[in-house]
Specification:
Number of domains of chain B: 2
Strand content of chain A: 15-25%
Radius of gyration of chain B: 30 Å
Structural class of chain B: alpha+beta
Radius of gyration of chain A: 29 Å
Largest sheet of chain A: 10 strands, mixed
Order of helices and strands of chain A: HHEEHEEHEEEEEHEEHEHHHEEHH
Helix content of chain A: 40-55%
Oligomer: heterodimer
Structural class of chain A: alpha+beta
Largest sheet of chain B: 11 strands, mixed
Number of helices of chain B: 15
Helix content of chain B: 55-70%
Number of strands of chain B: 13
Largest interface: A-B, 60 and 57 residues
Number of domains of chain A: 2
């Protein structure tokens, strides 16, 4: 076995070439890791809004809360269904909510409008959605013209900061009094106001978008679903909350995955070619060295592996650099349109050890693919001819 | 022997490496062209959207409707020459719920007048106007689901519950790139008459035509002022302004793609620069000889830059040659059909081809600067001493 130090020194000698090739691979790995972190962030944000053991009820045929309309009288009917958990005082655990979309102006622009999701919530929302906590200001007073906002919206729109006001309807101004955090979920990109306030402003008297209930256990879902959907006249449809939110993230995540998949494929091909060129040059340069190694008695296989190892080392150098660089994306907030609600939502780049490891692995793979042909050539160098050159 | 001949001859000296480099540049340029096309496909909707057409919607939110009588009010506004109205229907094909396409209830007669870039053959137009359940579908949508004129289809309503039956009476094509050919339009009357009393006589948005783009802002203002004292206020803007604000919502995605397309250019420069630098290093001895027989440093630099230019040019040309058929015949079709509405026109633009060719040559020259400088700085004696 040829010592690894030989390969490392060889890489160090040709600094410029090594850096150029490793940088190419690092860029590819960084792009791949960042895009996977974003896809993961999208799934986390939209997926975290759902909790196990909860069910969401929509109008039959509606695929999102946005297009769902339920009459308010359904609320009590749904809460009375079998499997719905009750608290210590015997009250069913569930809320009826109304989700609408509101156009607000972006600060620092000349009247550019963007859409924000506004959720009409009941008084007990903070008891029910217990992962949501007020982090600044105070909760809205029940029945008042006050709203609280998710922390990712703060300062992103005119009117969305503590003490500021915005227009919900002609002559109906509401004030932002608090900011809440919701464990990174999509709630953090929503405005919450009293359900009756939202109803009156949007002309949706006695209507709801969805009813969300907590079940006694996740296993009770099937019975609950049957109870909801048995009476066709009611026109209801129940989903496990987690599954509902996973569906919501499907479209956006699909677009990101598809676009980056294509990009990463082309990038990888480019970087592999770069590695191949570098390794071929390395082999050509060191023909005499290889000849000497052969003359010393190292076998063709040993030389093959030595050069392959060198290519992989080169690629891993790039891979690790790229993966580390991609961690910097953790500081970036990425806000874009949620394809299902047409409102703006903010995502973060969420790294996981798996994503980083697979990105480094991809870097290593590029080394193997780029190094295999040059390594073959190296192994075929004849000792006698090489020494004669 | 002129400079070009030398450059071409030089690229043949390590033919294998040259081929790899050209291929590397080609792949990078292909990826860049694809990204540019995605960006252009998004922007094309804005560039070609009408400046002489206004959209009027609910001031606070697009999810709320306007009373139908507003259509007549808009028609009376000075400067408005034609009016039509829409309701977003949100239909899905049973069993294919994940395939999104636009479904709109419109007054087909006035719709075709206001949107005169939508073309329906006269006979099909007559049929759809006479058929209460008639619908017209875009050519691309018809291809996607295999619909033909005369087919009966049933859609599930996501906003308006129930199953809705339609007859495909016509297939439309667009004479402008901003109109997507993957939507379904049917009679607003059919929708309106089928709804419960309380939901009737409502329209999602109103589109109106003004004589020329210069009047758009004034007329939009006039419309909004008219409704200001009413219960429901409106927000009117030209189609172009509306699409621009839509792009604002996905601007971070566009920015991200811009950044990624710069990264691919950087990778291309690294590959090309590396190849050129290796060539220079290998030819150190030869450059010494050239200097010794009277060539000046600027000549050596010129050799290096010329060689890089040839590589960039060939790589860019190969990338474009593969990219155009690949995108136009393969990826473009796929994107138009699987992200319907988002990319009405996903084809390579002439402008992007010029950008790619310009960049591949320009960046090749930049990548050659350092190796060219190194070649010109060689000391004749040192260079001559160096072999291999």
């Amino acid at each position: 076995m040829i010592p690894v130090a030989y390969n490392i020194r060889s890489l160090a000698v040709r600094k410029a070439t090594t850096i150029a090739t490793a940088t190419g691979i690092a860029l590819v790995v960084a792009v791949l890791a960042s895009s996977q972190m974003l896809s993961n962030g999208i799934r986390n944000t939209l997926g975290k809004a759902g909790q196990p053991g909860r069910a969401i009820v929509l109008r039959k045929g509606a695929d999102t809360e946005m297009s769902s309309n339920l009459e308010n009288r359904m609320l009590n009917l749904i809460l009375a269904a079998p499997g719905v958990k009750r608290d210590s005082s015997g009250q069913p655990r569930g809320v009826g909510e109304l989700l609408v979309v509101l156009a607000l102006e972006k600060p620092g622009t000349s009247g550019q409008m963007s859409n924000v999701a506004l959720r009409g919530v009941s008084d007990n929302v903070f008891q029910f959605r217990d992962q949501v906590k007020i982090v600044a200001g105070r909760p809205a007073k029940p029945g008042s013209h006050e709203v609280v906002i998710g922390q990712r919206l703060r300062g992103q729109f005119k009117g969305l900061d503590i003490g500021q006001k915005f227009e919900l309807k002609k002559n109906l101004n509401v004030e932002t009094v608090g900011v809440f955090a919701g464990n990174g979920s999509s709630s953090e990109s929503e405005v919450w106001g009293d359900v009756d306030l939202v109803r009156s402003a949007f002309g949706r008297d006695a209507m709801l978008s969805s009813v969300i209930v907590e079940l006694e256990s996740p296993a009770k879902f099937d019975a609950f679903k049957v109870a909801m959907e048995r009476d066709k006249q009611l026109g209801l449809q129940a989903f496990p909350e987690i599954q509902y939110y996973e569906q919501q993230s499907e479209g956006t995540a699909k677009l990101v995955t598809w676009l980056t998949g294509v990009v990463v494929f082309f990038f990888s091909v480019g970087a592999i070619i770069g590695a191949t060129i570098t390794m071929y040059a390395a082999v050509a340069h060191r023909k005499r060295e290889i000849g000497t190694l052969r003359a010393l008695g190292f076998s063709r296989t040993t030389i093959l592996f030595s050069f392959l190892l060198e290519a992989v080392l080169l690629a891993l150098l790039g891979g690790v650099t790229g993966a580390l660089a991609s961690l910097g994306m953790g500081f970036v907030k990425f806000s874009m349109m949620n394809m299902t609600s047409w409102s703006e939502i903010s995502f973060s780049f969420d790294p996981t050890p798996g994503i980083l490891a697979s990105a480094v692995l991809l870097g290593g793979m590029m080394g193997v693919l780029g190094g295999v042909f040059p390594a073959f050539r190296a192994s075929r160098v004849s000792a006698v001819e090489a020494m004669r050159d | 022997m002129n400079l070009a001949t030398i450059a071409i001859k030089n690229t043949r000296r390590n033919l294998f490496r040259t081929v790899l480099t050209i291929f590397g540049v080609a792949v990078a340029m292909l990826a860049f062209l694809l990204l540019r096309t995605v960006l252009s496909a998004w922007l094309v909707g804005v560039e070609y959207s009408a400046k002489d057409r206004l959209a009027t919607r609910h001031k606070i939110t697009f999810i709320m409707t306007l009373p139908k009588r507003y259509v007549e009010d808009v028609r009376q506004v000075p400067g408005v020459t034609a009016v039509t109205w829409f309701n977003w229907f949100g239909g899905k094909l049973p069993g294919k719920e994940d395939q999104f396409f636009g479904t709109m209830a419109v007054d087909i007669k006035s719709f075709l007048d206001v949107y005169d870039e939508i073309y329906v053959p006269p006979e099909q137009k007559a049929n759809v106007l006479a058929d209460r359940r008639g619908a017209i579908v875009g050519a691309s949508l018809a291809r996607q689901f295999g619909w033909k004129v005369g087919d009966h289809i049933t859609l599930d309503g996501t906003i308006f519950p129930g199953q809705w039956e339609f007859n495909v009476d016509g297939i439309y094509t667009a004479t402008k790139k901003s109109i997507d050919q993957s939507s379904l339009y049917f009679h607003w009357d059919y929708l309106n008459e089928s709804l419960p009393e309380i939901q009737r006589e409502q329209v999602g948005w109103i589109a109106s035509k003004v004589p020329d783009a210069g009047q758009a802002a004034t007329v939009a203002k006039r419309i909004d002022t008219l409704f200001e004292p009413r219960d429901i206020q409106t927000l009117s803007m030209s189609e172009r302004a509306m699409n621009t604000s839509f792009l604002g919502m996905i601007s971070t995605l566009l920015d991200a793609m811009q950044i990624v397309s710069f990264v691919i250019l950087l990778i291309m420069m690294l590959i090309l620069g590396n190849t050129i630098a290796m060539g220079v290093r290998e030819r150190t001895h030869e450059y010494g000889v050239l200097r010794a027989i009277g060539f000046m440093p600027k000549h050596l630099s010129a050799f290096v830059v010329a060689e890089a230019t040839v590589l960039g040019l060939l790589g860019g040309a190969l990338g474009v040659a593969i990219g155009i058929p690949l995108i136009n015949q393969g990826v473009g079709r796929f994107m138009e059909e699987s992200f319907t509405g988002l990319f009405p026109y996903f084809r390579v633009l002439e402008r992007d081809v010029f950008i790619v060719m310009g960049l591949s040559v320009g960046l090749a020259v930049i990548a050659a600067i350092i190796p060219a400088y190194n070649a010109s700085k060689l000391h004749v004696v040192d260079a001559l001493r160096k072999f291999g």
